[in-house]
Amino acid sequence: xxxxxxxxxxxxxxxxxxxxxxxxxxxxxxxxxxxxxxxxxxxxxxxxxxxxxxxxxxxxxxxxxxxxxxxxxxxxxxxxxxxxxxxxxxxxxxxxxxxxxxxxxxxxxxxxxxxxxxxxxxxxxxxxxxxxxxxxxxxxxxxxxxxxxxxxxxxxxxxxxxxxxxxxxxxxxxxxxxxxxxxxxxxxxxxxxxxxxxxxxxxxxxxxxxxxxxxxxxxxxxxxxxxxxxxxxxxxxxxxxxxxxxxxxxxxxxxxxxxxxxxxxxxxxxxxxxxxxxxxxxxxxx
Length: 286
Known about the structure:
About 40% of the residues lie in helices and about 10% in strands. The chain is an alpha+beta fold. The protein has a domain at about 135-275: 2-Layer Sandwich (Ribosomal Protein S8, Chain: A, domain 1). A six-stranded mixed β-sheet has the order 1-2-5-6-4-3, sandwiched between helices. The radius of gyration is 66 Å and the shape is rod-shaped. The model is unreliable at about 10-15, about 50-65 and about 280-285 (pLDDT under 50).
């Protein structure tokens, strides 16, 4: 490179490093009087709940944060509109009910009487029927007692004794030793007849047939169960006195020598042990 070129570059660098005098900017208001600076106003204390930020070394001091937005007032629900809507619902239901029931005719007083029989009426009829049956049983028992009493008092071919619990009857002339053995249960039992569930007429026919047939078969001792009558009025069986009367008079008596209340092993107070007459004994006609 030539010395002339170097000198030009060096001169250019020297010229750049020399300070240049700045020309002033265009200031149209420069000649106006300067405004006096105002004294800074004291900063207001920070409000509670608002945070303030501080910058160290700052000439401005504490900067204020923008105030928080005020809460919006709550709007009350449309109470009047809701109440009016609620009032209108029952009115609509009433109108709908009247429209559906417009063609219905109410029942008359006679129609109201056509009600099925209540349980109270059924219970009353049942109690009345039970009382009638109880009265009939009581009457039958009284008749049986009267008949048995007549046998004891007036006398007959049989001697009958009844103390209310045990009953005993024997034909006149029968050995007392056989009756005692019958009472103690020393004689073997040949057959038994149970009268439970039978009416009086059915029981009488059964007793007469049973005694007659067993004597034909040469049986000696029978047991006839008449029941204790715990469910009967007075706690005494209706058939108790009836059976004693049938065995001591009537058709069955022609085949009987004696009868006693059975021992406990054969039924106790709910049964009778019957001693049949022997085949050589001539039955009397009634």
